[in-house]
Amino acid sequence: MTQPTDVRGEPLQTALSLAISGAPVLPLRAGKTPFGNCRRCADTACGGRPNMKTPGPCTCPAPCHGWAAATTDPNIISSRIWREAWLSASAVAYHPGGAGLTVVDLDDADAITWARNNLPATQTVPTTRGEHWIYLGAMQSANAVRPGVDIKSTMAYARWLGHGTGTITALPDAVRDLVTKPAPARTMHQAVTVPAPAGGGRCPHRTPTYLARGLAMAEQRITHATSGVHATVYRTFLAVLSTHGRCGCLTAAHITRLFAAAQTKGETRRHCTDAWSNARTTLGL
Q1: What percent of the chain has pLDDT over 70?
Q2: Which residues, other chains included, contact 100 with Cβ-Cβ below 8 Å and sequence gap of 6+?
């Protein structure tokens, strides 16, 4: 398929123009959360994940959440229920894999520097925090393939942010290898490696329930995140370690609980390990 053309204007007009170029589209709420495309599944009544990024066990004629809702059909895009969505949409998203594209989502300056040193130049689109590098060719999507880098292609969606600059080039093996040849898995920290206190590892701050309450609040913070999950996980780990990282009361079971909460939000084990390690480094642990 041809790459999406540069389109300006209202979300509905943008979506229709993108669809004509072969890019399946869908509307996004504030926070980059998709709408459903049928009333039966409004507010994930059919059992999809709360952020609607993953199709649920829907009995509708076709999947209607997240990337699976993306379509090039102008009748669906202009239908009454989607017209209502476009009126309140904060952005237009598209399914890169459905358009024969792969988006390398670079979240920060370090990730951009890595891409410039390791990937062939291609079409580049500025984002709020970094850049989208767009290649011609589809592949498996994956989050956190390395620090600050996500791959969005099949079974994923990306915000449409304009045409960007540069000429789109073929999807290189260097990008495919980020998913098919992952780096060796790191060993999960079985406990925070700081000296245990004389009290045998009990939390000395207040009472034994202080740690339990803090962990429960941390799990809730991660579970209730509706956007910016990567950042939420890191900030939550940082908060837990800043309070309990030096007293020796954190155990492998506590860390496993936090990692499990993050993984229910779609984070990989590797990203959890990286976020935990980065938080420890930040605090000098």
Answers
A1: 74
A2: 1, 22, 136, 137, 138
